[in-house]
Amino acid sequence: MPLTLDQANTLIAAAIKEGADKGFQPLAVCVLDAGGHVQAFQRADGASMMRFEIAKGKAYGALAVGKGSRWLNAQAEGRPHFLEGLSNVSGGKIVPVPGGVLIKEENGTLLGAVGITGDTSDNDEIAALAGIAAIGKTAVTD
Q1: pTM of the full structure
Q2: Where are the alpha helices (DSSP H) in 22-102?
Q3: Average pLDDT across the chain, whole number
Q4: Is the Cα torsion angle 60, 142, 73, 12 positive or negative in sign?
């Protein structure tokens, strides 16, 4: 069964709450379905501009390679030519830093991805994990 709008909105609310509870900077959260289409997006009060593009780019990159954006970050460090090529073929849509997390069923079925931005990349990922946990799905960060 595909990820529902209710699940996407629950994920977003839980991620934003996690960030607020931990004192993170205001977060922006973008949920993409398995086909890479935006299912839901919200930006916390005070989040800066370009947050939609960054959050979407983190989620898009995760979907593009079937790995979390933490994996993409490692590739950028170890294989910059790979990331340059990936950026070129994607039209610059990929943001290769932590905070883009795949959303899967327990059996491994891909449901989509969430991208979060606003604080450090590690904190963005913490909020993503909380959001995915709130809907009872499996997170893949790398």
Answers
A1: 0.93
A2: 51-65, 69-78, 80-89
A3: 94
A4: positive
